[in-house]
Amino acid sequence: MNRQAQAVVLLLVGGAILRASVTDLYLRYVKEGLRPFLIVAGLLLVAAAVTTLWYELRPRKVVPASGGAVPDGFVEAAEHADEHDGHGHSHDPKVAWLLVLPVFALLLVAPPALGSYAAGRSGTAIQEVSEFPPLPAGDPVRISVIDYATRAVYDDGKSLGDRKIKLSGFVLIGEDGAPYLARMVLSCCAADARPIKIGLAGAVPAGLAADSWLEVTGTYTDRTVKDVVNDGVIPYLDVTESHPIPAPHNQYEE
């Protein structure tokens, strides 16, 4: 693959990154806060590709050392030298062009966010904390799935009290057929995503489908269960009200 082809691939990669960054597509891959860095990276790649193409395609003047007229043989020799200097590698393996396939996949295909399939094969990932600030005002109070799970497990629900809690997440069907509410949590990108799982007790609707999104309102209960994947503690929410919702634009929690 010669330099011109390399520049084209670089341009496609930069364009794909910019396209993902200016839409919500980037949220399928990385944390929301990384958007400015992706935009800068995409712009730099595009700039590098354009500069390389300009340098490779600009007209070249061959001036002999004597300053006289340029013999035809000298021009042919210079062009022949250019071909062997990286501008005419006809013997390059065509398999190198397969590098553009992931780029076209990124441009043309929008992969779904990780859901119940990934969550069911990973253990719940809550981490122990020692401080629990007061809940925000509101009745019910909307908090994240990871906030509820942490308070329920490591604070024994003391900071939750009898407050009405509103959570949203996708449905995960356990091996026992019981429904759970789950969200995937990112440390950096989708490659390190781990699930947070909440058991649903009380007024849970029947016939919930995996990966459907649900908003539930309820109160803390001390009921827990062990995650079959990593023996992590999964707390429960005593549900009093629930209804289906569309998937949010950012389906991950941080």
From TrEMBL:
InterPro entries linked to this entry: DUF1980, DUF1980_C
UniProt lineage: Bacteria, Bacillati, Actinomycetota, Actinomycetes, Micromonosporales
Coiled-coil ranges (or none): none
Highest taxon listed in the record's lineage: Bacteria
Protein name: Membrane protein
Pfam family for this entry, one: DUF1980_C
DUF1980 domain boundaries: 153-252
Positions of transmembrane segments: 36-55, 95-114
Organism from which the protein derives: Virgisporangium aliadipatigenens
Keyword terms of this UniProt record: Membrane, Transmembrane, Transmembrane helix
